Amino acid sequence: MRFQVRLGNEIIGFSELEVADAPMGVAGGRFLPTPAYSSIQPYCIEHRDRWVSIPELTVSAAGGVPIECSGGVQIIDFSPKLGEAGIEIYLNGVPYPCYETLSTSRGSLQQFGRKA
Fold first, then answer.
1. Residue 50 has what DSSP assignment?
2. Which residues face 17 on adjacent strands?
3. Where are the alpha helices (DSSP H) in 29-89?
């Protein structure tokens, strides 16, 4: 399933959220930016090692409501050294009931290297 990443009402990218750590309530994966990502890319590069959450940054299934995550959405951008493949996104603090729904909808969600 492809998830939309939004800054406010603008789609800044997409992710499959293909990796997970269920006990920690973390889901993440490769981030595929749209041109609109350039509006926050410098911030994501500068703060990749000491992230400060952006309240307007959300992730949702296409057309759906944002996925609840108490720790916020984090974009880790190493693209200056690794290219576009060096950008990842993480949802931190996804609560269990919501996480279970997310995992079910993904089907192939992996546990950081292991099939779920």
1. S
2. none
3. 41-46, 79-82
Q: Specify the pLDDT at position 103.
A: 57
Report the alpha-carbon angle 80-94-12, nearest 5: 40
Domain ranges of the chain: 3-111
CB atoms closer than 10 angstroms to residue 30 = 17
pTM of the model: 0.84
3 state SS for 75-116: EEECHHHHCHHHEEEEEECCCHHHHHHHHHHHCCCEECCEEC
- Rounded CA-CA distance 37/51 in Å is 17
List the one residue out of 39, 15, 19 whose CA is nearest residue 27: 19
The share of the chain scoring above pLDDT 90, in percent, equals 59
pLDDT tens digits, 12-54:
999 999 888 888 889 999 999 999 999 999 999 999 999 998 9
